[in-house]
Amino acid sequence: MNRTDPPDGPPRRPRAGRGARGDGGAGRTERVFAGIAVSAGVAIGTGFGTTEPEAEITRSKIHATDIEAEGARLDEAIAISRKQLTKLRARLAALPEDSQAEIAPLIDAYLMMLGPSRLIRGARRRIAETLFSAERAVVEECEAIAAAILAIADDDEAGQVRRAEEVREIGRRLVRNLTRQPFRSFAGLPEGAVLVAESLRPADAALLDPARLAGVATDEGGADGHTAIMLRALGVPAVLGAAGLSAALLPGDLAVVDGSAGEVVLNPSPDRLAAARRAVTAFARERQKFARLRRLPSVTLDGESVELHANLEIPAELPLIAQSGATGIGLLRSEFLFMNRESLPDEDAQTETYRSVIEAMGGDPVTIRVLDWGGEKDIEALAGAGIVPEAADTNPALGLRGIRLLLRRPELLETQLAAILRAAGAGPTRVLLPMVTTVGEVRRTREIYERVVRRLRRRGERLPDPLPPLGIMIETPGAALSADALALEADFFAIGTNDLAMYTLAVDRGESDVAELYDPLHPAVLRLMQFATEAALRMRMPVSVCGELAANPRLTPLLLGLGLRSFSMNASAVPRVKQAVRTVEIDDCARFARRVMEQADPARIRELVLGFPLATTT
Ligand code: PEP
Ligand code: MG
């Protein structure tokens, strides 16, 4: 976390920030706090501080004769808590659909914990056996459950912390209802205010009305927590983890929350305020346009459909993908399953993960790329399991990477293929092979694929019919130049321009010293893309682009002009690219691509690309 103005200790009064004078309150000094950008957008409003002291437990022990009465108190608190949560759930109907989808499962989880759960059973036992008061029994049991959750060896540490926090959260609700101490209320929140708090619970976030609130900023919280996810889902600009902010806020302070940059400014200088106002207007305009775009079809002005899919690096991106309007996952980079661990994920664990992603996509296709270890992607589990040597090769990008490694260690590939095949019953799925350079690699992989299919069928697994297609990445010049031969072996192509540019230009994609030479618009890269695209189109075989190039709307006309109709990109880029698609005609794009492909100078190509008249209307 990067903090530009860390407070030392909890200041009661604002200290001078960067010397500028703010205009938020008469003569107040500007102060800048850096935190975590969790929900994009800029908000300007009067800071409204809220605090909620922990509910105090004054009665800790009971007499043996009170066990039954204490159980009845607990029952009553459970009933009140259920009622509150049910009311909260009903309020969700007023929120946008995305927000409902995000928040409802959490409230359901809370309600389940209030049923015949381990929490409630444990609390009753503590009342009866230890003679604890109901509130103490609840707190102790919640802590025990949270500790057990955190003690499990799990790769999803953020998820564990979140689950433990959910248990504590329901415990706090019960204690408040047992001790009849009121919850923090947001009723007094003035319209257009910026909510400033030490911390905010997910259930608090669910109480906020995004139409009345400008933004949210807190001292505590992380980018992965439910509160962050909810604020994003509510579309409220938000910064969490801005340490010292709530203590520095004085009544009447003006606050600017930059949820894209992760910065909060109290009493901004006139210049900063003017810039923030411009950003608010620009963001509101863009959001309106993008919200409309999400539901609009991805078609060109002359009616040609263009497939826009999202790339997925970790499952946490799924809600963003849902919001983006992407109609599938064009590249699931499965490396996340193998990272930060000492052993390899087994078939069942992989099946579970793939299945949950496929299910989450609700019938939209998911393209799962098998493990692409190597190059800059270092995976400890493979070294730990003795699959690759601890020390990387001197030239890892040219070494045992992607499909080469998998064919050298077929047991890795077989496990992954089996998991994908088992999960594929949950929705349309495709399998993608990384770093292919020869037809032999595709043939050998297909043999393994068929062997895995036979084995699973013998085991009695039900597999989809037809089986998931087996496609390849075109990301090496070798693959691009043998695309016509590869098209006879593969079921689809996905052009990976990130590596294609690296290997074509002999420029490391992650090396800053040669960054200006890394140019996917170099004619050599474009010609390879064109060659591979045409080979696929001749065979009437699906072909897409899933490198970063596809995410740049400025390049959409060129890619469409080359004959491409399917792109996969980071979710946030989907609306912009859709906008570009909807403003062009294929004939213009084709003419434009012909012109571009006549050029030999990358600088001239760039100039042409920037000069293409992309209308801004949708
Ligand atoms: C690519 O190389 O363009 C690609 C999409 O794969 P990755 O970025 O995962 O190497
Ligand atoms: Mg690649």
Main attributes?
alpha/beta; eight-stranded parallel sheet; binds magnesium ion; 23 helices; disordered N terminus; binds phosphoenolpyruvate; eight-stranded mixed sheet; 618 residues
Structural description of this entry:
It is a single chain. The protein is of the alpha/beta class. It is 45% helix and 12% strand. It has 23 helices and 16 strands. The strands form two sheets. It has an eight-stranded mixed β-sheet. The chain has an eight-stranded parallel β-sheet with strand order 15-14-13-12-11-10-9-16. Helix 1 packs antiparallel against helix 2, helix 4 runs antiparallel to helix 5 and helix 18 crosses helix 19. It is globular and about 85 Å long. The two termini are 38 Å apart. The site of phosphoenolpyruvate has 10 residues, from strand 10 and helix 18. Phosphoenolpyruvate binds next to strand 10 and helix 18.
In the sheet with the most strands, the strands line up as 1-8-7-3-4-5-6-2
What molecules are bound to this protein? phosphoenolpyruvate, magnesium ion
In whole angstroms, how far apart are the ends? 38 Å
By DSSP, the count of extended strands is 16
Helix content: 40-55%
Show unreliable segments: 1-25
User: Given the C-alpha coordinates, what overall shape results?
Assistant: globular
Radius of gyration (CA) equals 28 Å
- Strand percentage: 5-15%
**How does the helix and strand content classify structurally?**
alpha/beta
Average of the residue pLDDT scores: 87
Sheet having the most strands: 8 strands, mixed
Q: What's the total helix number?
A: 23
